[in-house]
Amino acid sequence: MATIQFARGIDEDVVPDVKLTRSKDGSDGRAVFYFEMPKALVGEVPQEITGMYMIDDEGELTSREVNAKFINGQPSGIEAIYIMRSEYDWDRFMRFMQRYAESHNLGFSKA
Q: Dihedrals φ, ψ of 50, to 5°?
């Protein structure tokens, strides 16, 4: 089982839109996540967001680049960026995403 959390111990139910980019030589990459109306912002009890934690059987990947988006003063989404600085980081991230997709009955499509 793979999950994403913004506060430790509280799984985010909203499935994000994820955009991936990778350098031509494969040495680094970037994943931009966008969660529309996530539980962390608009749930019964909004959570203190401490980062984005991607948790699976291998362990945890963490990003501190997490920003809430507001429209007219109302929470609308969360954007999080995960940076991969090596081919190992990229491969590890892709293994997480494969598990996350399987856990949430999702597919993957190349743009």
A: -110, -5
- pLDDT single digits (tens) 60-98: 999 999 999 999 988 899 999 999 999 999 999 999 999
Helix (H, G, I), strand (E, B) or coil at 79: strand
Angstrom CA distances, 49 to 23, 30, 85, 87, 96, stand at 30, 21, 24, 29, 21
Phi and psi at 82, nearest 5°, equal -115, 125
Pseudo-torsion of CA 52, 53, 56, 59, nearest 10°? 140
pTM: 0.90
Cα–Cα distance, 15 to 43 (Å, whole number): 15
CB 69 within 8 A of CB 76: yes
Kindly state the DSSP code that residue 15 receives in the 8-state scheme: P
Identity at 44, one-letter amino acid code:
E
CATH code that applies to domain 3-103? 2.40.30.220
Rg, the chain, Cα only: 14
